[in-house]
Amino acid sequence: MTQPLPTATHWGNFLLGRGGAGELHVTPAGHDPDPSPIGRSLTALHDPDHRIARPAIRLGYYRDREKSDTSHRGREPFVEVDWDEALDITAGALRSTQQRAGNRAIYGGSYGWASAGRFHHTQGQIHRFLRMFGGYTASVDTYSFAAAEVTIPHVLGMNAYFAARQSPTTEEIAQHCARIVFFGGAAARNAQVNPGGYGAHRYRDHLATLRAAGVDTVNIGPVRDDLDPALAARWIPCRPGTDTAIMLAIVHTLVVEDLHDRAFLDRYTTGFDRFADYVTGRADGEPKTPEWAATLSEVPAHEIRDLARLLARERCVIGLPYALQRAEHGEQTYWAAWALAAALGYIGLPGGGVLMGTGVGMTNAMQRRYLPFEIPALPQPTNPVSDVVPVARLTEMLEHPGETVDYNGRVLTYPEIDLIYWAGGNPFHHHQDLNRLRRAWARPRTVVVNEISWTSTARLADIVLPSTAAQEREDFAASRTDHWLSPMLPALRPYGRARDDYAIFADLAERLGFGQRFTEGRTARQWVQHLWQTTADNAAAAGITLPGYTEFRSGQPIDLRPVLPESRHVLERFRDDPDCHPLATPSGRIEIFSGTVADFGYPDAPGHPAWFPAREWLGSPRAQRFPLHLLSHQPATRLHSQLDYGVTSRESKIRDREPLRMHPADAATRDLRDGDIVRVFNDRGALLAGLRLTDAVRPGVVHMATGAWYDPLDPAAPDSLDVHGNPNTVTNDIGTSSLAQGPSVNSCLVEIERYDDELPPLRIHKPPELITAEKLRAHPG
């Protein structure tokens, strides 16, 4: 076997080497006590059925350029060309769009976790390129956390991700906290990934610490095993989307029984009285009692009331996963949780408050030990184009140019997009209502994609430029949410004629007249060295010594935790003295009522937490037609859609279809059995899935992972059956509310039936039809 070389991924550090027959071997790094199984899928990196070997142009676009029939995307073969021709065509399309419609007509899509590396992270590459080209329409917020990203700054005066790192440590919870109440669990699958790489997985250690300390845990949600069984949590199953109603009812009990912490509310918050008027019904005539919440959630009123009394009796933490706010009115869940925590008065105390994110220990993976220095990335100039669109409103933007949308106190106008340049992501995995997106995707004249593999998005492009994988380039992994610095060596040669994104954009920049400005005269390796040296200089200024680059790249990953000082949280200093350490809200306090949000005048987002029924939930009239609530979650067997063709992902599937979990009672009424292939459908579309029966989901709810590559049976039919099992074929593409316009993926009703027809083969795991330019010129017909 060849000498294994280190690489870093979003799901951990690994060693890659070649066996005697040329096969790839993957070994977890020795310092990781609980490595992610996704690492096994790295062996598929050079799979010829999936990797893109040469630049490719859709046949119609190759012949007619911007006058081609865009409805043929995904239906025509691709013409393989050499790099010079591909880059000339791409540069020509960019220049043509700029001259005809202006840079506002370019949408720069780079949404995804392309690489854990600091330099080769694709978002930094494409944004730098497009900004230097004159700008582009950009997206704001994320599919992961949009509702919270907009709401939390109004409530706490801080970035939502920073607020998530204000959570107490595992040891503090073990020592000071009697109880954690999770709304929606804290799935271990989410604890295996991190945006800038993951040096060591210790989630199970955190759980063991809590269990040994006897911390009581409660899981309120429709899925029991979204909280690790090691915690032996009490499960309170509820209807999806009713978490806010339950929180409001808990607050109602606290208020009417005088169990709320009035001293804390008076000193540290503003607007609780107005919120209490709403909760008690003085404002609208409808008290938010446990009985009221029981009719919505199907959680017995006495359980809600008893839980409120337990929470008031002993210090507790409220836990929230990201998925909870990925639903219509998702803003209200996080706002209501902070209002509940404020009513209890534990915010800023050791082991108290709110856990935002994946759950204890991994929401704040740093456990108070933050990096006291900056880790640089590729420098970004200002975007000359001011237009932005909430990331989850992509389809609306393409469908309705010139129309407006409310967003966080602003009125945004959708531009008319002439060219999409996408790199480092797969919107035909993570966007909602994929059939609708596919129809809208035909509107721009040109779609350019930098991609590693033949994903659904690459197949729906006009120009496909093959990128190298992270394991084929040199870089280093680091982030502010992990305390490891990890070298990334090129363990593999670039596949086929693939180039790294930096080389692609540098060549395009040269053709478009700003090559020197883009590269600053540096090669890719010189940029990596420069970023490392700047990192080392910043660390030295903070009293931390890092090795030179040559020593670092030839050594082991560096664990900084032993040299990082513990820090105090903003909310702790605020609790010590709110006058000396006010929050960055207009009042300087926690805003349970926000005058800023109230003044926006949105009927679906008042100035305090409130209950709004979603258009799709089990209590809506629509449930008569589609009586099952579909919840889709991040997969355990891959990161989003990355390496869906890898062994870890493929082994989890049922006859090559993504698994879907259903309660046995729901299966019995439909005469379904474990292992059946089922058709999951509503009026937006349909997909095939493999059935798994379990009592870990409550009746009326079905549960499946996202990330199976979208594979329409008939590429020419805009509403075709997806034969592989991507739940976003049927999910709801509406904004969470006028406030955040985030994704409402978990507000989705479906029906399910057995699929008795002959099982269609998957096309997505074979390359599209490819012809060479030379053959086309020889046989133009």
From TrEMBL:
GO terms for cellular component: outer membrane-bounded periplasmic space
Keywords: Metal-binding, Molybdenum, Oxidoreductase
Entry superkingdom: Bacteria
All copies of domain Molybdopterin dinucleotide-binding, residue ranges: 628-748
Cofactors, names only: Mo-bis(molybdopterin guanine dinucleotide)
Entry GO MF terms: electron transfer activity; molybdenum ion binding; molybdopterin cofactor binding; oxidoreductase activity
InterPro entries according to UniProt: Asp_de-COase-like_dom_sf, CT_DMSOR/BSOR/TMAOR, MoPterin_dinucl-bd_dom, Mopterin_OxRdtase, Mopterin_OxRdtase_prok_CS, Prok_Mopterin_Oxidored
Molybdopterin oxidoreductase domain residues: 51-511
Xref: PROSITE patterns: MOLYBDOPTERIN_PROK_2
Family affiliation: Belongs to the prokaryotic molybdopterin-containing oxidoreductase family.
Protein name: Biotin transporter BioY
The species this protein was found in: Nocardia jinanensis
